[in-house]
Amino acid sequence: MKLNILFFSFMICLCFNCQEKQDTKIETDCESTYMDYSNSNDQFTGGINMIPIETKIGTFNVYTKRVGNNPKMKVLLLHGGPGGTHEFFDCFDGYFPKEEIEYIYYDQLDSYYSDKPNDSTLWTTEHFVEEVEQVRKALNMDSSNFYLYGQSWGGILAMEYALKYQDNLKGLIISNMMSSAPEYGKYAEEVLGPQMPPEVLKEIKELETNEDYGNPRYTELLMNHYYIEHALRMSLEEWPKSVHLAFEHLNPNIYLYMQGPSEFGMAGNATLKTWDVSNRLKTINTPTLVIGATYDTMDPKHMEWMANEFPKGRFLLCPNGSHLAQYDDQKIYFEGLISFIKDVNSGSFN
Asked: Which Pfam families does the record cross-reference, listed alphabetically (predicted)?
């Protein structure tokens, strides 16, 4: 009898051990392929693809770098500026891989890591929309997986793309950008400027009146009284290296041409000065997330209004953030962004 009991106990233990080994094998067999580049043409470059862009003055290459593999969630990142770089988004590495969201860094034409034809006839929203479309095709993204994310000027570009090509989109994200350049200027002039010490604002205005934008004093005043309050709410010493690099690598030619020399809205002969698509947002039926921040250079109330204009809109407010809320209100920013992407993917977005 004791032998039977011992044999029975041995068999139970053996079964449990076998099941444990089997479960381990299943976990191994189901191991994520998110970071597996072994069957990809860009394994040699670590995900970097220089994509040829056809323009009216010739063909030029733009820099892209893919991180991860996910056939259902692919996010193309449109940087600000114009003339900025993908370096503003280096912090995405800290959040998207864990969620297995594929994302693509991308420097637009005439930005630091891409070709620089330096031809102002290409510095139009129409050109950049077609550039994004060529990148989309080259990376094989479509309405089953293509999320377009744009921050600041990238937000303008994302809206313009959606107005023409929304059928290609699965989701749209507009971060820290209003739908009207004149309203953006009004907010900077009437709300943000007066928050500065009067003597500082007076000196800045005098420099702008004299068009002395290259004066180091102009940059110093803005950095110490405007940028650390409304661009990235940290001391300059605390700014991440990637942000410093993005500013160092900014192309001033295209920036001045499209945005203008002033930081208080778009001024001078800036080509975007009258840009406004506020009355067209309601025609974009793509699920859309609008991200604003309390201390942003952009009016958060306007961005909340935008979210309500989109037929399928959602608003995310970063209460402690500014224009680069992905850094100074990071956890709320990414929690809301990731939730939106996954809700759209699962069909639970409403």
From this structure: Abhydrolase_1
pLDDT for 30: 64
Q: Is 302 in the active site?
A: no
Nearest by Cα to 152 from 89, 73, 196, 226: 89
Q: Which CATH architecture has domain 48-182+272-346?
A: 3-Layer(aba) Sandwich (3.40)
Select which of 114, 152, 262, 322 is catalytic: 152
d(CA 168, CA 100): 22
pTM listed for this prediction: 0.90
* Start-end of H helices in 101-195: 125-138, 153-165, 181-187
Question: Both tokens of residue 341?
Answer: 């992407």
CB 85, CB 79: distance < 8 Å? yes
Q: Which residues contact 166 (CB under 8 A, 6 or more apart)?
A: 172, 284, 285, 286
CA angle 322/323/324 to nearest 5° reads 90
Is 323 noted as a catalytic residue in this protein? Answer: yes
Query: Would you call 79 a catalytic residue per the annotation?
Result: no
**Residue ranges covered by each domain of the chain:** 48-182+272-346, 184-237
Identified catalytic residue from 296, 299, 328, 329: 296
Phi then psi dihedrals of residue 186, to 5 deg: -65, -40
Pairing type for strands 102-107 and 313-318 reads: unpaired
